[in-house]
Structures are given as structure tokens and as C-alpha cells.
Design brief:
The chain has nine helices and 21 strands. With 390 residues, the protein is of the alpha+beta class. It folds into two domains: 259 residues, FAD/NAD(P)-binding domain; 98 residues, 2-Layer Sandwich (Alpha-Beta Plaits), CATH 3.30.70. Helix 1 runs parallel beside helix 9. The two termini are 19 Å apart. It comes from Luteolibacter algae.
Length: 390
């Protein structure tokens, strides 16, 4: 198969990269290893879009990135009937993973220039003398002129022998396991109940009734009435280990809730995610490495292609997040040089594998920002193919 652009990974970033490149008039192939698009928003059931809105919560919520981020936000609001909500010092948009999957399918099907290959893994990538990239995949060979890596783990860099960045294991951000319970009494979604629940969990852990894993557990309302999501942080590890630990914990906590709280007496579930929520692994070395100071200080760049609006959310332990907020309640810039390889021409990247420090990644990894960097990477790939070589 011959195409103009190949996008590796169909998560939030890859979805937007592929759609934006197709809308730019180029033939695009998007390969996704699973049976669905949306990445952490569908597979891991991350149930809020973070990073969509302006950091100033003293004002009504305002989108910071136009185009596909705004389009997806509007579609989700229309279908759930739920708008942005204030969560501490930030706005988030509750989202339904099943609806997000539908939206992703509709966006890709609408683009005649775009072909999606599901359940497709990449086994090697090489570059020809004429500059074309050749991808060997489980669905056959794909030849393209530009590549977008939205794999979340920078696998394209690994195949091409490019430099990858990673944090020390002891500082790598924790992973998350998410499950939901349905047919829950409305009171379970109230702030007062969540505080009561948090205290009960702490006591249960100390008494040996729940595992230590429960200490970092948070609950949040779903976009669907009667459903509550639970998220617990786990130490980074392999997928199978994370899934086993997460599912066992989901069963234990669900049983505890049904036994001790009338609000959960008739609850159905647990309904676990299909994948653990990995927050950090490998990243590309770009022409520039975005830093925490760039975001905190609101540094301006002449080549800005997207805006970051989420604070630095560090989860280096399993006991919850530590937030560092921008000095000014304004979005911060992400330059194109963070989305371009420092070593290989014609390769762009988006989402969790962009060129960023460990601390900066803690801001830009959220889905709202991934929509924006994905859109930007797709546009950059189109722009590259308009150059003198092509």
C-alpha cells in the first residue's frame, strides 16, 4: 500500500493527526493496534477531557485550541448533555468513553482520504534512498513520504534508531486503573459523600480490609446518570501485571462499597477498563525539548502550534497528584520544534511522546492537549509534503 502520510497510533493525538492530514488533502493511513480509536479515552476509560479550557476559572470556560479539539468538545457536549465542570482550580469536560468511540469513528469515516487499519501492529520501519518510509505491519507493507508517531511510546523512534527520552524508573509517573459501578444512588456523586468515602478507605486500609492500592483512589461522576468512576494509581509495570492488579482491586473495592454503603447496595459491576492508563514511557528527542519552566513561565515561541492549559500534574507516587500551576492564569505555548524530529526529516510526533521533559509531559499528556498536538502534527506533515522535494 502506498500513501502520503502514515499515522502510527489511534489515540486522541493520532485520531486528530490523521483527520487533520486528510482534511489537508493528503492520502492518510492510520494504524491502530486495538479494535478502537481513542486510546486512553476509550481503552483505559479516562472519563474527562482535561486541558481543553482556559486556566482562568474565574471566568466562564473558554476553549484554548480551535479546530478538532473544539469540534470533539462540541460533539461530546451535545451527546451527553453535560458541559464543563469546575474541578478545584481547573475546568474539565466529563466524557463517555463509548460516545467518544462513536465520535472517533464518525470523524474518520467522513474523510475519504483516510483509511484506518485496526488490530494492526508495526514490526519494522525503514527508510529508502529516495526518502520514503517503509512500514512492515501485520496488515502488510505501507510506503509513505511522511510519518506521524502518535503511539504514546515513541515506537517509530525505536524502529528508526532515533534518540528516545525517558525518566528514571523511580520518578516515572504512576499508571492508572479505572473501573465504574452503575445503578448507584445519586448521593454517591456528591462532594460530601466522596469525603466520607475517602476517610472510610483510609480506615479500611489501616485495618487490613483493603489493599494499600486503595489509598490513592478517587471517585468521580460519569456523564451517565447512576454511574460512578473509580481511578486508582498503580506503580508502573507491564500491561498484564497492571491489569491483574487493577481487576483484583476493582473487585475488592466494589465488594467493600456494597457491604458498607447503602448508596452502593444495588450497584452493578465492576466494569473495568480494557487497558491500564499509562501516563509516561518513552518520548522523542525533538528540535526542542519543552520544559516545565516554559509552561510555568508562559514562554512565547515564534513557532507556536498548540496551547497547553493543564497544570503540571505529577503522579510520581501512588498517593495522588501534586499540581504546579502556571504563574499566570493563561495558556502556555507548545512550539512546532517539539513535534519535529531532531534527527530524521519527515517525521513528526504528537500526544504523550512529544519532545518534552518529565515535568512538562505531566501537563501536555492530557487528552485535550493531545487533540491539539495531534492536529498540529498532521498539519505539519501536510506542510512538509508541500515542500520543494515534493
Amino acid at each position: 500500500m502506498i500513501t502520503d502520510i502514515c499515522v502510527v497510533g489511534g489515540g486522541s493525538a493520532g485520531l486528530c493527526a490523521a483527520v487533520s492530514a486528510a482534511r489537508g488533502g493528503r492520502k492518510v493511513v492510520l494504524i491502530e493496534r486495538s479494535d478502537r480509536l481513542g486510546g486512553m479515552g476509550t481503552l483505559a476509560r479516562v472519563h474527562t477531557f482535561c486541558g481543553l479550557y482556559h486556566p482562568d476559572v474565574s471566568k466562564p470556560p473558554m476553549l484554548v485550541n480551535e479546530g478538532l479539539p473544539a469540534e470533539i468538545e462540541q460533539k461530546m457536549r451535545e451527546r451527553t448533555g453535560v458541559g464543563p465542570v469546575k474541578m478545584g482550580k481547573v475546568y474539565v469536560l466529563p466524557q463517555d468513553p463509548d460516545i467518544f468511540r462513536e465520535i472517533a469513528d464518525e470523524l474518520t469515516v467522513a474523510e475519504k482520504n483516510l483509511q484506518v487499519k485496526y488490530r494492526t501492529s508495526c514490526t519494522s520501519i525503514s527508510r529508502m534512498e529516495d526518502g520514503a518510509f517503509v512500514l512492515e505491519t501485520s496488515a502488510g507493507r505501507i510506503t509513505c513520504r511522511a510519518l506521524v508517531d502518535a503511539s504514546a511510546d515513541a515506537i517509530v523512534a525505536d524502529f528508526l534508531g532515533a534518540t528516545r527520552l525517558a525518566e528514571k524508573p523511580e520518578k516515572t509517573q504512576s499508571s492508572a486503573f479505572i473501573f465504574s459501578l452503575r445503578n448507584v444512588a445519586p448521593a454517591a456523586g456528591e462532594d460530601a459523600f466522596r469525603m466520607r468515602l475517602a476517610l472510610a478507605i483510609v480506615r479500611a486500609v489501616k485495618a487490613g480490609e483493603l489493599p494499600e492500592t486503595a489509598m490513592g483512589t478517587a471517585s468521580r461522576n460519569s456523564a451517565v446518570a447512576g454511574e460512578i468512576y473509580f481511578t486508582t494509581d498503580l506503580k508502573p509495570g507491564g500491561r498484564s501485571d497492571l491489569m491483574a492488579t487493577g481487576k483484583a482491586f476493582a473487585e475488592a473495592l466494589s465488594e467493600f462499597l456494597r457491604e458498607h454503603f447503602t448508596e452502593f447496595a444495588s450497584a452493578d459491576g465492576p466494569f473495568p477498563a480494557a487497558e491500564p492508563g499509562v501516563r509516561e514511557s518513552w518520548r522523542w528527542l525533538g528540535k526542542y525539548v519543552l520544559t516545565e519552566a516554559d509552561l510555568i513561565d508562559g514562554r512565547e515561541f515564534p513557532d507556536t502550534v498548540a496551547m497547553a492549559a493543564w497544570p503540571i500534574e505529577l503522579r510520581e507516587t501512588t498517593h495522588g497528584a501534586k499540581f504546579r500551576f502556571f504563574k499566570r492564569a493563561e495558556p502556555s505555548a507548545i512550539p512546532r520544534s517539539c513535534l519535529e524530529s531532531a534527527e530524521i526529516e519527515g517525521v513528526f510526533f504528537a500526544g504523550r511522546c512529544i519532545s518534552a521533559s518529565h515535568e512538562a509531559l505531566a501537563s501536555v499528556r492530557v487528552m485535550g492537549t493531545c487533540f491539539a498536538t495531534g492536529q498540529a502534527a498532521g498539519r505539519l506533515a501536510v506542510e512538509y509534503l508541500r515542500g520543494p522535494k515534493f
